[in-house]
Amino acid sequence: MNQSKEDYSALLARIRQVRPESASQSEDRLKLPAPRTMVSGKKTFWINYMEFPTILRRDPDEFLNYFRSQLAINASLENGRAIFMGRPDKQSFSALIQRYLKDRVICPVCGSPDTKLEKNKQVLTLLCEACGARSAAK
Ligand SMILES: [Zn+2]
Q1: How many CB atoms within 10 Å of residue 85?
Q2: Is 2 a member of any domain?
């Protein structure tokens, strides 16, 4: 019994070594919740907004700016919720979160999500804490 348990974990360790880190695995590691939104009148409330910049270790305003410019609608933060002055459909939020990961979180060199975003003279740079690469962020 003990022997087979050891074999199993040795096998798992071997599989982990063999399998290269891909971007999709890294995204899984981030464990992001689904965006919860609510439409009221002409506004859309993103109720669990704060969970996203917190998990991604991003500035809540910078994160919101990304959605503001991609959706081309105004938005503001209020009590941890994001309020959009329009009614983008639900899929837009999920799709934009995935695009944000690709543009500003996942290192294009090694696929790690352990990165920092630096802003210098309006230029965004992605700094990878895993491999040290500096990449241009969109
Ligand atoms: Zn990297």
Answers
A1: 13
A2: no
CA of 113 to the centre of ligand 1 (A): 8
CATH number at residue 51: 3.30.70.3150
Bridge partners of 40?
43
- How far is ligand 1, taken at its centre, from the CA of residue 128, in Å? 5
CA of 29 to the centre of ligand 1 (A): 15
Cα(28) to centroid(ligand 1), Å: 16
pLDDT in tens, 82-121: 999 999 988 999 999 999 999 999 999 999 999 999 988 8
Task: Classify residue 39: in a domain, yes or no.
Answer: yes
Q: By the 8 A CB rule, do 74 and 43 touch?
A: no
**Quick one: pLDDT band at residue 37, thresholds 50, 70, 90?**
very high
- The verdict on residue 123 lying in a domain is no
Q: What is the structure's pLDDT at 41?
A: 96
Residue, of 6 and 47, whose pLDDT is higher: 47
Structure tokens at 127: 């700094």
Domain of 45, in residue numbers? 21-108
